[in-house]
Design goal:
This protein has six helices and 19 strands. By secondary structure, the chain is of the alpha+beta class.
């Protein structure tokens, strides 16, 4: 935290007497974008939401308004949901923002700056994708700090019946980030079923159970089958334990890839572990020097980094190096480094970048300690003339 001291706009201490206080630090919040460069949260129960659409909760319909008004409605719905678990927009640490068209990003950013307080602006990542409802122009999922005064020992899921939105509470303690897994099949629904079965084998390897799942993200095609995918995933779980789900349309020969965030069930150690993040390869899977099958945050601290794009256009190599050099600087100033990265999501809008991307990652990652990761080819990364955005969760090095 020493690097952040001179750069922070605000630090919030959340908690009550007798309970370890959660600290949330916002690094370089921007009045232009409504986002911070990164957000550091320590020792807290974290709320993870499902993908929130601009629905009228009472009517269950999306009114065909502009992206700005839909952004305001999404945030209203998000605040409604977070308050169900003693949270609010003022405690957001991360927003993943999904827009239907690239040109809408500026309008969404403008509305965010109006709706969110400058001192509590989350890390944000944008991606352009079709949404589960074709009338939606914008959707979001979120991570937020809570003011939990009790020790949470297992994942808690709240399902809001009127809206269908969900929020899961991740206990403070060890957390597994599982890289995207995919199984080939003829249809997206069949592929989703087979992939979830494979993911459950990964859970078993980790000593976790389906009830420990905090969030599921699926990269799928086509988005027109979103309802079928949601119903398939929901059908695996008891109604009261259905986890939050986010869907992103990707361009791939595979119908679907699914990643997970999972609370590890055992008690956290009495003292802070020497190693704050560890990396696992489940039995039967092949290790890779550029991504880990599973990364486990051994502590409750998280560093959420806003989506990073190259500073200027250039060839593939120039763009990739720009993104990783920015990441190296940001996590270093936040108290981490390139050997304590937990979860990466790479969105690319030109699949041709993949070859250079795989090679260059080896220059920045320790082959024994790369983050868990998913890479998705999407319509746009939300910034004109950019073809790569890197979304990262890091863990403090000490």
């Amino acid at each position: 935290m020493k690097y952040l001291t001179k750069l922070l706009i605000a630090v919030f201490l959340l908690g009550v007497t007798g309970v370890a206080k959660a600290e949330v630090s916002y690094y370089k919040p921007s009045s232009k974008t409504g986002a911070s460069l990164c957000v550091v949260v320590r020792d807290d129960v974290l709320a993870h939401t499902s993908q929130i659409l601009p629905l009228n909760i009472k009517g269950g319909m999306i009114t065909p308004t502009g992206a700005g008004d839909q952004t305001a409605l999404v945030l209203k719905n998000l605040d409604y949901l977070l308050k169900k678990v003693d949270c609010s927009l003022n405690k957001l640490v991360k927003l993943n923002i999904y827009v239907a068209r690239e040109e809408l990003v500026a309008e969404v950013q403008q509305r965010l700056t109006q709706e969110l307080e400058l001192i509590a602006q989350p890390a944000c990542t944008y991606v352009v994708t079709k949404l589960p409802d074709p009338k939606a122009l914008v959707a979001m999922d979120a991570v937020a700090a809570t003011e939990s005064s009790s020790k949470l020992t297992e994942t808690k899921v709240f399902n809001d019946a009127p809206s269908g939105f969900r929020v899961a509470l991740l206990p403070a303690g060890r957390t597994a980030y599982i890289s995207g897994q995919a199984v080939k099949a003829d249809t997206v629904s069949e592929a989703a079923i087979l992939t979830m079965k494979e993911l459950f084998q990964t859970l078993e390897y980790l000593g976790a159970k389906p009830k420990n799942i905090v969030h599921i993200k699926a990269f799928m095609t086509p988005m027109s089958q979103a309802n079928e995918v949601n119903e398939m995933i929901d059908g695996i779980f008891p109604e009261e334990r259905r986890p939050p789900v986010t869907l992103v349309e990707w361009f791939s020969s595979l119908p679907i890839e699914i990643e997970m965030i999972v609370a590890m069930p055992e008690e956290p150690p009495a003292s802070r572990p020497a190693e704050t993040v560890t990396y696992k390869t489940p039995t039967g899977m092949k290790a890779s020097p550029v991504y880990s099958r599973v990364a486990i945050a051994e502590v409750s601290d998280r560093i959420y980094v806003s989506g990073i794009t190259s500073k200027e256009p250039g060839d593939y190599s120039t763009r990739i190096h720009s993104v990783f050099n920015q990441l190296k600087t940001i996590v270093g100033e936040a108290g981490s480094d390139m050997q304590h990265l937990a979860k990466a999501t790479y969105y690319v809008s030109e699949d041709g970048i993949s070859g250079d991307f795989g090679k260059i990652r080896t220059e920045y990652y320790n082959p024994k300690r790369p983050p868990a990761a998913s890479k998705a080819t999407v319509k746009s990364v939300g910034v004109p003339n950019r073809i790569l955005v890197l979304d990262m969760i890091a863990i403090p090095a000490k």
